Amino acid sequence: MEEERYNKILDISFSFGVRIVKLFQYLIDNKVSPALPTQILRSGTSIGANVNESIYAQSKKDFISKMHIALKEANETKYWLRILHASGYINDNEFESMLTDNKNIIGTLVNIIKAAKT
Asked: pTM (2 decimals)?
């Protein structure tokens, strides 16, 4: 079960990262000040990067630490999505779709961290 959950987070964090890259390009193409697109690009792609780093964690503690960093980045990404939506840069449908994916990632990370601690 844990391996299945771990494979899931690898897949969904990668797919989410691809969506973030596409959102970044959309925002840049639409002349949004580079600060916002850059922030969400960094946090949104960092989720999957940290999950992938955890594959070769040196210890259980290191694994949990990498997952916590991914969780923090996912939470930061949620903040930037809310800013972009409130500012009118992304519409309701785009926001809800990305927020749903983000919440799925957060929930999966929380479950993995809890399981790793036991």
From this structure: 0.92
